[in-house]
Amino acid sequence: DAGVIQSPRHEVTEMGQEVTLRCKPISGHNSLFWYRQTMMRGLELLIYFNNNVPIDDSGMPEDRFSAKMPNASFSTLKIQPSEPRDSAVYFCASSKDRNTGELFFGEGSRLTVL
Amino acid sequence: AQSVTQPDIHITVSEGASLELRCNYSYGATPYLFWYVQSPGQGLQLLLKYFSGDTLVQGIKGFEAEFKRSQSSFNLRKPSVHWSDAAEYFCAVVNQAGTALIFGKGTTLSVSS
Predict the structure, then answer these.
(1) Among A6, A24, B2, B24, which residue's Cβ finds the most Cβ atoms within 10 Å?
(2) Residue A62: its pLDDT value, please?
(3) In terms of pLDDT, which residue wins out, B65 or A62?
(4) Closest CA to A41 of A90, A95, A94
(5) Using one digit for the tens of pLDDT, what is the confidence trace for A33-75?
C-alpha cells in the first residue's frame, strides 16, 4: 500500500491567503485524523472523521479552519484567512479501527505563513 | 482528562549504550498506550503498543516498553542504541472516548559516537 499521502509537502504563503492541505488515507481505513505539530504545543488533534463524518472537531482552533471529507479517499484542511501563528506541520493520519489507536501518518505538510 | 508527560525534552546517549525514555500518563481506567518515533522530515511510525495482558511489550527495531500501573508509567527501553535511532519519540494514550490519540510533547534522542 502507498501509505497516507499528503500534499503539498511544503507551502509558503502570505498572511491573509487561503491555504488548502490535502490528504489521501490508506485504502480501507475508515478513520482519518488531522494533527498540527508545533514546537510550543507539540502534536494537537484538530479533527477526526469516521466513515467520512466529522466526529470531533473540538481541536479546530477557530472558524478560520475547516475540514472536509467528501469521500473515503480524500480529505482537505482549509485555513482562510491564514495567519503567521498558523505556521506548523500539519499531519494527516488514518486508522483501520478507531478503537485500536494504531494510526498511520503521512509525511506532513509544512506550512509557513509570512 | 487524559494526559501524557514526557519529562525529558532531549537525551543524548552513546552508541551501544542502553536507553530508557520516560513516559507518565494520567488516565482513570486501564489505558491504551503507544510509542511512536518520528525521524526528521517524516511522519510518525508506531514502535509498539500496550492494550492489556503482559506488561512488557516488544516492538520494532529492538525496542520494548513496560507498563507499570503503580507508577502510571510506560517507559521505552532499548539495550543497545544505534546511530540510526536518533529521532524524536512520542508517547501517546487513547482518549477517554476511544476515538483519538493524545500525544506527549516528545523526547529528542541524540546518539553520540
Answers:
(1) A6
(2) 86
(3) B65
(4) A90
(5) 999 999 888 999 999 999 999 998 989 988 999 999 999 999 9
Residue with cell 511544503: A10
Place of cell 527495531: B61
Give the residue on A whose Cα is nearest the Cα of B107.
A42
Distance of alpha carbon B91 from alpha carbon B98, whole angstroms: 16
Judged by a CB distance cut-off of 8 A, whether residue A25 touches chain B is no
Helix (H) or strand (E) segment spanning residue B110: strand B107-112
Average pLDDT over residues B38-59: 91
Contact A91 B94 (CB under 8 A): no
Tens-digit pLDDT profile for residues A11-27: 999 999 999 999 999 99
Separation between Cα atoms, residue B46 and residue B57, nearest integer Å: 13
Task: Provide the 3-class DSSP secondary structure of residue B61.
Answer: helix
Chain A neighbors of B44, CB-CB under 8 A: 91, 93, 103, 105
Nearest to B99 among A43, A55, A108 (CB): A55
Phi, psi of B84 (to 5 degrees): -70, -10
Of A50, A56, A107, the CB nearest to B43: A107
